[in-house]
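PROTEIN ENTRY
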Amino acid sequence: MSSRDAILQRLRNRSGGELAIPDCDFSVLQRPSSSVAERVDQFQKTIESVHGEVHRCTSENWITQLADLLSSRGARNLLVPAAHQIGRTLRDADSNELPELLIYDEPIHSWQAQLFNEVDASITSTRGGIAETGSLIMWPTPDEPRLMSLVPPIHIAVLEASELYSTFHEAMQDQNWASGMPTNALLVSGPSKTADIEQTLAYGVHGPKELIVLVIE
């Protein structure tokens, strides 16, 4: 009898019965409790190690800091969400320092050339962050399509310090990801990078050349 026949015979001779599902032990993923300030420090250290940029702000001064960052980079425009509070706040802001505000409110095929060639920067919300890996959690929506964070050379993400989690597992549990997820979820850990060319790590080759995180404390 060949090895294949022996395996098939053993399968046929099985007595049957349901397989027991082993208990899941996630204790290895647990971390000691930490303060918001400690998580922000860890997040900043980790994401800056891979060329991300973090600026700590308050709800009162984040627009001023945003305007300064865009001005220092010579950004001519900023792509903002139409419905999200971030977009509404920026459009209502009485600031002459902000560049022209653009809205992603039409199908991609109708303005693809402009998005890929003329948009200098974009700003999006986040669903939280992971301190351990220096990652942003993003769930694209029709109001904030994923191209907003993947195409413009400068991607600015707004992160509430209170929504920083120690680990990925903690974020999934606290936000109850098991109850439903979008068709596309993003974990962003710095600007675009690749090592395809001679196995040398290079940044800004495809996608955003800069990732700027405004942490609202």
